[in-house]
Amino acid sequence: MRFVLKTVMVLGLAGFALTAGAGEKRYTASNAKWQAECSSCHIAYPPQLLPAVSWQRILGGLDRHFGTDASMEAKATEEIGAFLAANAARGKRAQRAGNQIRITETPWFRHEHDEVAPAVWKSPKVKSAANCAACHLGAESGDYSEHNVRMPR
Amino acid sequence: MSVTNFRYVASLGLCLLATSAFAETPGGIQDSFAQAARASSPTFSGFSTSRGERLFQSTHGGEWSCASCHTRDPRDVGAHAKTGKTIKALAPGANPQRFTSSSKVEKWFKRNCNDVLGRECTAQEKGDVLTYLMSLGK
Predict the structure, then answer these.
(1) How far, in Å, CA of B25 to CA of B89, rounded?
(2) B111, A71: Cβ pair inside 8 Å?
(3) What domains are there in chain B, each with its CATH number?
(4) What is the ipTM of this complex?
(5) What residues pair up with B87 in beta bridges, in sequence order?
(6) Whole-angstrom distance between the N-terminal and C-terminal Cα of chain B?
(7) For an interface test with A, which of B111, B112, B117, B120 has the most A Cβ atoms less than 10 Å from its Cβ?
């Protein structure tokens, strides 16, 4: 029975395993203000996931931030803006993202997650595709590596 | 004026000076709301726990109430209505970290009143809600 269970588990995980895409999976750039402010309501998404122009758009509209008011003092916005710009996505990933402000709708994100079954996204434990930590166990510390992925069931 | 009287008046003055800076405690922040409420309305007659509770628990014709994220009992751990992220207890009796930074308090009242009421809250409303939260104990 234990063997069967294990096999089922392995198959289950393999079925949902993410494709190993190019690019880094560990994001180490950090800034105390960014961490504190952005992680109040959700994970502080790594700056590398969007180009500078997108972050600029996000910071310019914090009073209507995906349906909620997330406005900050000008000084905090400025410091966080500089940090995001300095570490933003560059090159091909940035080009393909255009000025998209939803990380989950960038071609890069879609490609990385194209093998995730629709049922996983709809799981109440995931709630939203913005909830990285539902599957990426190390997301809070910037670790998005493949071996640290567990799909909720 | 006798020396004793003078000393009394002088120390009273110092006390007033000290409180006008408002300590970064729930009580100090409540006092600063009272001062602001008095300044904007001469008929200000203090804060009300029941008014604060009503403001906190109702949706005001919109989608959310304060309780949508902070739960009906603000001594409990809540969750963000959109992201699901855990929100630590809001009532200062249950979470002593709460209402110990006036800039944080202002930041969140501004955001959350806009989300729930579609406008910023008045000093009267903020004081009522804080008074309700402070009445809850542990």
Answers:
(1) 16
(2) yes
(3) 23-135 (1.10.760.10)
(4) 0.81
(5) B78
(6) 48
(7) B111
Task: State how far residue B84 is from chain A, nearest Cα, in angstroms.
Answer: 7
Query: At CB < 8 Å, which residues of chain A contact B?
Result: 41-42, 63, 66-73, 127-128, 130-131
CA distance B90 to chain A (A): 14
Q: What is the pTM of this model?
A: 0.81
Query: Residue B61: what are its φ and ψ, rounded to 5°?
Result: 80, 0
Given a cut of 50, whether residue A1 has pLDDT beyond it is no
pLDDT tens by residue, B103-117: 999 999 999 999 999
Residue (of A29, A49, A38) closest to A111 by Cα position: A49
Cα A81 to Cα A94: distance, rounded to the nearest angstrom = 17
Contacts of A130 in chain B (CB under 8 A): 83
- Give the largest Cα separation in chain A, rounded: 60
The 10s digit of each residue's pLDDT in A18-72 is 333 444 589 999 999 999 999 999 999 999 999 999 999 999 999 999 999 999 9
Alpha-helix runs per DSSP H in A17-88: 32-38, 52-60, 74-87
List CB contacts (< 8 A) between B110 and chain A.
69, 71
* 3 state SS of A68: strand
Partner-chain contact B107 A72, CB within 8 Å: yes
All residues of chain A having their beta carbon less than 8 Å from the beta carbon of residue B111 are 68-71
Helix (H) or strand (E) holding B67: helix B66-70
